[in-house]
Amino acid sequence: MNAVAGGTPLDLHAVEPGFSDPPLASQAVFRAVLNAFTRPGQIQRVPSDAQHPSGAAPAAAALLLALLDPDCTLWLAPRLAHGSAADWLRFHTGCRIVSELREAQFLWSDADQMPPLEQLPAGSEFEPETAATCVIQVHALEDTAGWRLHGPGIEQTQPLTVRGLGEAFLTQWRANHAAFPRGIDLLLCAGERVAGLARTTSIEG
Amino acid sequence: MSDTSSISAARDPHVNFAYLDERTKRMIRRTLLKAVCIPGHQVPFGSREMPLPYGWGTGGIQVTAAILGPTDTLKVIDQGSDDTVNAVNIRRFFQRTAGVAVTTDTTAADIIQTRHRIPETPLREGQILVYQVPAPEPLQRLEPRRSETRTLHGLAEYGLMHVKLYEDIARYGHIATTYDYPVLVNERYVMSPSPIPKFDNPKMHRSRALQLFGAGREKRIYAVPPYTAVTSLAFDDHPFSIQRWASACALCGAADSFLDEWVTDDRGTRMFVCSDSHYCATRQARATAPEPSHGSK
Question: How far apart, in whole angstroms, are the C-alpha atoms of residue A160 and residue A136?
């Protein structure tokens, strides 16, 4: 069904299955992601019965499986690119894997291999919607203590604790937030949990 | 009119869930995510042909089809009413293609698709309000070229809009726009609230519900997340104000709702009634119900 865009042939026996009922599963996963960006910092559970590839957080794998198709470009951090995740997504979604950051609509990375935010395509003042969506796998997410988030979608303040992001992240995020309407939107994933950081979200560390 | 007819109809097995094909839904979903992240900014999308003409809510239907799940309860209103042709047909469309439960009760609905009104009952967290939008570009009447309006939005250059409102004041003594009254979202983008009466504009400000806007013919989607500042444009010496009526609703007595004028005969007799049919019906039912403290009959 889905043409494989890359050069290397896939070993189909090694590709883990995707959703058992793609229309309904994609809808449920999408709503979790929509909630994540609608209420930044509030943790959502991503329901999925897909068998995620090794090295993938279930939430990250499921949301990319639900959102990507041949119209999309995806950049993978080295560890994921060399594992079975790339084949799994290429097979199930037909997305194009790119090696240049500036060509990526979606990025998928572990927190320790995350490229600096300023190197990612942030859209233009006139077409800010062309900015990338970045899916980052972190060690843990808790919506208590830690950062205090403000902005659209948050009534007063939303607490969020993220384990695994580097020291430089907050400085990068401040610059990203200040560039509005340009800017990267982030989905932080740990296990089956996801929290969104829209470019409108400001973080007090 | 049944109040909470949460009937789950059988889904038509010959069409995909919620009518649209999966690739179209994914495209609309990706568009929606960017729209939520850039409140008030119009994001272009590949609007599809729908089994009804432009102007009948094709944008709203596509947005609803992309977000709707089997466990959602759907409410559809047209000018505040659950019972008009457009509302009844869109509700039936999703009963048939998605098998979802439908309701007329504003508080029981997870998704409310609306044409030109915001319900009187305050919305809650977790609800999604989907607007049908005929003309998404607030600057279109002032600058018809899309390439130009895109630049104006990019530079947040909204002087034209203020000149238009000022010309109203110069000509009529007040701002004469009464519906589709332009708003500033999150202190950045000027946005069309769709042709809702300006009476409803204050309900958009820091709303608890997510608001999604779909324009099918113009191929644009935009959004306002919950708790986002939405201010109606105005001047310090000509502040924004909403419509007021001299009378209350003739059916339920509400003095706080948006009223429609009904001509009741050919001698010019008229009455004012709530435009929000569920709000009016609920108030009438409450007024005729026996007081619980007096026991039951």
Answer: 15
- Whether B184 and B230 have beta carbons less than 8 Å apart is answered as yes
> Is residue B225 a part of any domain in this protein?
yes
Would B162 be classed as within a structural domain? no
- The structural domain count of chain B equals 2
CATH of the domain at B95: 3.40.50.11310
ipTM confidence score = 0.95
Q: Is A153 on the interface with B (CB under 8 A)?
A: yes
CATH code, domain with A87: 3.40.50.11310
CB contact under 8 A, B67 and A34: yes
Q: Judge if B29 and B57 occupy the same domain.
A: yes
- By Cβ distance, the residue of A24, A27, A33 closest to B33 is A33
- Residue-wise pLDDT tens digits, B185-229: 999 999 999 999 999 999 999 999 999 999 999 999 999 999 999
Contacts of B225 in chain A (CB under 8 A): 37-39, 152-153, 198, 200
B85 with B121, same domain: the answer is yes
Which residues neighbour A139 within 8 Å (Cβ) at sequence distance 6 or greater? Answer: A111, A163, A164, A190
Q: pLDDT tens, B235-246?
A: 999 999 999 999
Q: In which region does residue A125 sit, left (phi positive, over 0), alpha (psi from -120 to 50) or beta (all else)? A: alpha
Among A22, A67, A125, the residue with its CB nearest the CB of B30 is A67
| Tokens, residue B162 | 């203020």
Domain that holds residue B274: 244-297
Range of the domain at A101: 20-204
Active site amino acids of B: 40, 249, 252, 274, 280
Q: Among all residues of chain B, which has the CA nearest to that of A24?
A: B69
